[in-house]
Structure formats: C-alpha cells, structure tokens
Amino acid sequence: MEPAELRTARAVLSAPNETDVDAIFEACQDPAIQRYVALPSPYERKHAEGFIPIVAQHWAKESEYTWAVRADDDLAGVIALLADGDGAAEIGYWMVPRARGRGLLTEAARAVIDWGFSPDGGKLERIEWRSVAGNIPSARTARALGFRYEGLLRRAQVGNRGREDGWIAGLLATDDRMPQVWPVLERST
Fold first, then answer.
1. d(CA 164, CA 150)
2. Is the N or the C terminus of the chain less surrounded, counting Cβ atoms within 10 Å?
3. Nearest residue to 16 (alpha-carbon basis) of 63, 61, 70
C-alpha cells in the first residue's frame, strides 16, 4: 500500500521522509519521549536515518502505518498504527515538546483513527492503546479519543527501563468515541 496523506484543520500527516531525520533525532532526545516510547538508548542520528526506510517497508507490507504530523511545516510528532493482520492495530504516538498541550495530537489521532476504521483505509475493527502505567498525558489523549480503559497489564510494557506495568484501552469501529470514565485518571486528578 502507498502511504496515505491525511489532513486536519491544523496539520498534514504523511510518511516521514529524509527531510525529517534531524527533527526526529532531536525529538527523540526529549526525556519524556525516551521515558514512554520504546527507543534505542542512546538514540543516535543513525536510528532516525534508519527509521525512514523501515516506515516505507511497513507501508508496503501493510503491517504498520506511520505518519509524521506536521504543523506549520514543522515536525510536531509521529503517530502510527501497528496492524496485527486480523482487523486490529495498536496506536502509538509522540509529540515534540513545543506541540504538546494544544490539542494537535488529538486532532491528528482522530484522522488516523478515522482512516484506520475506514473500508478505504486500514479496514480495522479494533484499535488498542497501550502505555506504561503512569503516562497521564497519553492516557488523557486516549480517553478524549473515546478509548475505553480496559485495565492494567502487569509487566507487559518493555522499554529502556526493562519490563513495567502497562495500561490498555480499546476502541471499536462501532464505538461512539465519547470520552469515558477512566478509573486511573480519576485518581490522578
């Protein structure tokens, strides 16, 4: 499959390319991204360079769909759907610090979710969100997108700190996408 370009009111989502390498490398130095995203550590420029051809391969195999989120012609983040081949995928995302807190991620993720559930897009029935337990900003975004909190996965997330507890939430193509109550977020506010 050729990479799909998506547009929102404030962003263009398209496959990352060579012009994004410096911005991806810089973004992946951010401690929050390193804490919650499974990245090589230390993250070197060669990792950003190698990411671009891998994205193209995944699009071609229809195994993972990755977009660079661009706002005002600058890289604001990356969002992906990791397909399981059986009608489900996991959504993952990160945003550069200057793009956080403006609702841009929620806007971009809505476009990706719409594409994922579309018969002309990913043809998915279910999208999962997973994160290291305690990643409150990511959980708030997932809740705003209508994901239903499904529980704690003990020692299920593997990252730079080894195995950690994780949260999981799901969204079905038939769900209304209204924000739901998440017990873990109610305790954190």
1. 17
2. C
3. 70
User: Which domains can be identified in the chain, with CATH numbers?
Assistant: 6-188 (3.40.630.30)
Q: Is the pTM of this model over 0.85?
A: yes
What is the phi-psi region of residue 8: left when phi exceeds 0, alpha when psi lies from -120 to 50, beta otherwise? beta
The string of pLDDT tens digits covering residues 113-169 is 999 999 999 999 999 999 999 999 999 999 999 999 999 999 998 877 889 999 999
Nearest to 147 by CA among 173, 179, 99: 179
124's tokens: 């998915």
Q: Write the Ramachandran bin of 43: left for phi over 0, alpha for psi from -120 to 50, otherwise beta.
A: beta
Residue 98: alpha-carbon gap to chain centroid = 17
DSSP 12-49: EEE---GGGHHHHHHHTTSHHHHHHS---SS--HHHHH
Residue with the two structure tokens 């337990």: 133
b/e for 86-114, b at 16 or more Cβ within 10 A?
A: eebbbbbbbbbeebbeeebbebbbbbbbe
